[in-house]
Amino acid sequence: MRTSSDTETELTEPVEIGGVELQNRLYRAPLLECAGNGPGAVETFVDELEPAAEAGAGLIFQGASIVTADGGCAAPNMTRVHDPDFVEGLSALTDRIHDHGSKIFMQLAAGGLRSLSMWHSEYRDNHPGEQQRAVSTPPIQLRVADRLGFIDLQPDVLSTTEVYDLAESFGRAAGYAVDAGYDGIHLSGANMGIIQQFLSPYYNDRDDEFADGVRFLLAIRDAVRKHAGSVPLLTKLPAETVSPPFVREGLTRKDGRIVAQRLEGAGYDGVVPVETSVYWDMSIIRGAYPDRAWNAADLQSEYADVFGSRVRARAVKTLNRLQARWFPHEAGWNGDFCRQVRDAVDIPVLCEGGIRTRADCERLLGESCDLVGMGRPFYAEPRLPVRLLSGERALCESCNNCTVPQAAGEPGRCRTPAIVRERARLEQQDSYNRNNQS
Ligand SMILES: Cc1cc2nc3c(=O)[nH]c(=O)nc-3n(C[C@H](O)[C@H](O)[C@H](O)COP(=O)(O)O)c2cc1C
Description:
By secondary structure, the protein is of the alpha/beta class. Helices cover 38% and strands 12% of the residues. It has helices spanning 41-54, 84-89, 91-99, 116-119, 121-126, 140-147, 160-179, 194-199, 214-228, 253-265, 291-294, 303-307, 310-326, 335-342, 358-367, 376-380, 384-389, 417-428; strands at 15-17, 20-22, 26-28, 59-61, 65-66, 79-80, 103-109, 132-134, 155-157, 184-187, 233-239, 270-275, 350-352, 371-374. Bound molecules: flavin mononucleotide.
């Protein structure tokens, strides 16, 4: 166990995760690339991720990919990685990332209750009868929302054997990823997907060995080790500290520390502590209310069609507005939780959430974590590391105009004209050219 040190750690210092050496401590946090599995998927990944490597990010986390052949996608156009032939094609991506001296980890996920069939009306129409894999019978508040017609729950509570099968799907996908040249595996453990649902007392009411939700992460570890050997294995680690007040059960920071210690003991190579809620809300993407995105006229689908009706779309919009006020979004909002976890374990602790300057990165590296990451700023500036490493502030202002349109099938990109224009100006000045930096 270590205590948080005052020693200064620079962003440019190399660091190791599970035996993999990274050239610096800056990572691109997982963000959906919306690449799907169709023709052009690999090219989309290359277009989205190579610029970050070329610009000097030490580590790139690909956005969440789904380990099962059906169900489990939390958003439109997510990529599935159950098929070895498809994953093999991603070696074109990993080669390009490695050419620039960067490393890439695949993030694996399964949505559980947080799946398109639960909330996306058009998807449900196209996949009638599709159920959501569930840890237990959903909590009362979700059942009420279902009765009122705001969501569509069709839970399929997993048997013990099915839980092991699901863990095996994670392991198989990890094996395919390593064969395709990925340097590590990251688990999507804090986005209200099925891993968080296993960990959370709000969702987990099982009476088999998986009543202890950490056992699911241990089963995934076993499957990953079986199929992918000693590849570095990380997970996001939730503390459900910003759940609405009416939710009485949720993971505390102390629970998070204990889970982190158990994962370290089980051979996990790093954790990404995230303060979140039990619901799929804006707690992980805190920022402003995205007025422009809600009024966008250039979407592939109308929000009313996505959410099922104008009333439902308006309800989501109102919740979005309230959450923008509710969740505090100071720079590095997960820093305190990261520090507490870091005091309890020796494996690397990774911090992300609202970080926008090199000064913030180095403050957090000193106090709270071993690596720092950014998400939305990479939508705004795919070559961000060049400017950030030379001390410039990221352009992203957490306005969240990039987030809501993804529900309507739009790709992940910055949709705020002033920022898009500023990036274009910086590109013209060659500000993203690594060779021009001192
Ligand atoms: C559009 C969008 C998609 C995201 N997709 C993922 C994901 O696939 N997996 C994940 O663990 N986190 C995901 N995140 C969360 C980010 O990794 C990150 O934690 C969050 O955006 C906060 O960091 P930031 O303030 O630098 O954006 C996503 C965030 C956004 C905005």
